[in-house]
# Entry
Amino acid sequence: MNATIRGHGSSFTLTNMKYQTPSNTFVEAIPMPWGLRTIFYLSVVAMLTGIVLPSIVQDDDLTGWAIWVYYPAMIFGTITMAVVSFWFRKLIVWVDDTYLAFGYGKFRKRFTFDQIESVELTPYSFYKYGGAGIRYARDGHRAWSIPFLHTGVEVKLTEGGKDRTYYISSKRAEELEQAVKSRLANS
# Structure
């Protein structure tokens, strides 16, 4: 999911296809902090170096296990890290007249407004969720958060017959809260 946002009621790119968002649609793409992205990208480069360098050095002690264990593990790890770095580079939050949707790359959630009971502006609790990203708290709450961003909303809803609470990070948390509340009032 690629997002190109220019202003409030402007263009949105979704998988290389242009959509014109109506002015009443809330769209936000929150990028991962540049320092964290740099660490992810440098780790992919380091893992690629770990794959290439032993074959250049040609250490004879590594020949047996290197072919069957080391190289497959490094290749798998490098591909996994590259995919995770790509998918988790930004959190997309979208509110239109039908859905509240949010997600990282291929990991997305979408809820209709009949499922949503309430929305509340809430600061992020690192203690409660134990980190950032897609997080699960002990009490069944879930968070879709960005590291070092402490603003967002808590959405109480029904999912699959169960009551759930989702925390969604947002740099424009008050606008997000108002967008959801206005649609709840209309439904």
